[in-house]
Amino acid sequence: MGRPAKRAKAEPSGGGELTRALNWLNSYSKVSKWMAQYDLNAMVEAGDGIVKISNFLPPFVAEGALQILERLPPSRWNDTAADEDYTHNNIAHRFWSVKGATGGGPALEALLRAFSLLVPDQFNAFSAARYETDHHIAPHDDRAYTPVQLDTGEVITCSRDLTCVYYLTKDWTADMGGAFVDLEADPEPGPSSNGTAGSGGGSSGSGGGGSMVQHPAQQRPGRVYVPEFNSAVFFRVPRYHSVTPLRTDRPRFSVFGWYLQPGQLYDLFTGEEEDIAQQIAYRQRSRAAAGAANGGALPAAGAAAAADGFEGEPRQEQQEEQEELDRAIEPQRCKLAQRLLARAAERQQQRASLR
């Protein structure tokens, strides 16, 4: 796959606006004061494990952040892709990414550094992303271990604890794809499937409402969050989600990353029968959500692929997948349901303790 295409037209100067944003991003006191308004862990717990914050950064900073990503030359972006491999904890995904300290330059490094001040008492790992046509991420729950080198030189193992996705693309619509799908939530009631976004500076809405956890074999689509400029979605790991395939020639820009906790907070995906069944079931929910986000059907560009399976999957493979689901999920139905119900009960207790 080639590098991102060069822009046909010259970038607008926007020098003053970008300079103002960089001055803010490089001011520890200003960034810290702004981030201090968010008690992120409390907001996530109150939202049943997920929260969306609109107007996450000051508007002029968001405008500058978009310019930082748009101005990165194609050579800076790395092809981030993998095929599905249950045995190595890999899920199918493809997009472009870049880290500030390893190719993004000082402007991107300043932008990513600002996110460290949101949860200053935790390690973190952040990158920028650029999605193009057909880029996507298959259903997964973000479980992973990350090695972190301390100032002493010691390397410790950390676990992803909290995920962040910050959107920097304007005027995005559901039929363009590239939507975040929370596969552990029911669809948003009403005609819109864009989560419960707040309005005004620093406002937020949870992804919750009713029972958040269902047996995955129900195959109901999850809650769809269409990218909204200068909004951020945070959720606790593990949580099953996906990113629907992009169906437009416009690139979709974002910042993503994780806040980390020392140690191994959970077991990684094992490839055992129960885990495989859960992966397959959530993939089917993701298919349904991709259609629901576009009024019940994928746009014309993706309709042919959807007819044969997610991401152009051949019909025979789709049939074999369904047979695998039928074989794998039935013996585990009781165990999996009990685990999910226990998790739901734990969340209810957590919410009750916050009241």
Task: Count structural domains.
Answer: 1
How many helices? The count is 8
Distance between the termini: 51 Å
The CATH level-2 architecture is identified as: Sandwich
Region (Disordered): 181-219, 303-329
Biased composition (Gly residues): 197-211
Cofactor: L-ascorbate
GO molecular function: dioxygenase activity; iron ion binding; L-ascorbic acid binding; oxidoreductase activity, acting on paired donors, with incorporation or reduction of molecular oxygen
Describe this structure as you would to a colleague:
The chain is an alpha+beta fold and 355 residues long. The protein has a single domain, classed as Jelly Rolls. Helices cover 35% and strands 21% of the residues. It contains 8 helices and 13 strands. Strands 1, 2, 3, 4, 5, 6, 7, 8, 9, 10, 11, 12 and 13 form a 13-stranded antiparallel sheet that branches. Helix 1 packs across helix 4 and helix 6 crosses helix 8. The longest helix is centred in the C-terminal third of the chain and has 40 residues. The protein is globular and about 50 Å long.
